[in-house]
Amino acid sequence: MRKLKNIELNRLSVEEFKKADKMPVIVVLDNIRSLNNVGSVFRTSDALKVEKIMLCGITATPPHTDIHKTALGAEDAVEWEYYENTLDAIKELKKQGVMVCSIEQVENSISLPDYTPESNMKYALVLGNEVKGVQQTVVNESDVCIEIPQYGTKHSFNVSVTTGIVLWEFFRKIGL
């Protein structure tokens, strides 16, 4: 086997990406502290052609060197917008008919492998702060809460890892 060169990967340009069909998913980052996590979410969102990222609360916004360090330019391709308050972003999404899914450990959550998104629906995936998770007020406004099964000693995944797992599962189930 020969490792492929970047030029052989036939990736989209930023302009082509912006015009391309996207997966009907919006990522909502609820008060993410780490700029490296924000950058990683941009990069994963680019890879899976996410429609948009909503950066909320204390979540940093591009341009920023620490975001760029992990995003590697994806912050220029993936559309994003900033909301001072996550709840305002959620209320706006719900007005647009978007299904709001918080990724959180709550009573009566649905296990990610058991969740089947509908192909004709648009989804917002809310990911929470590295320590506190998704705010309870945001959980209260969510249409559903999805939980990733875990079997070790820790109670959560890193937020950028969680984003990758959940986005891949949505991509696998509904595609573009």
UniProtKB/TrEMBL annotation:
* One example of a Gene Ontology biological process annotation: methylation
**SUPFAM superfamilies in UniProt:** alpha/beta knot
Could you state a single Gene Ontology molecular function term?
A: methyltransferase activity
Going by the UniProt record, its keywords in alphabetical order are: Methyltransferase, Transferase
**For this UniProt entry, which residues form the secretion signal?**
none
Q: Where is the tRNA/rRNA methyltransferase SpoU type domain?
A: 25-168
- Kindly name one Pfam family recorded for this protein: SpoU_methylase
Q: Which PANTHER family match?
A: 23S RRNA (GUANOSINE-2'-O-)-METHYLTRANSFERASE RLMB
Q: What is this protein called?
A: RNA methyltransferase
Origin species, per record, is: Carboxylicivirga linearis
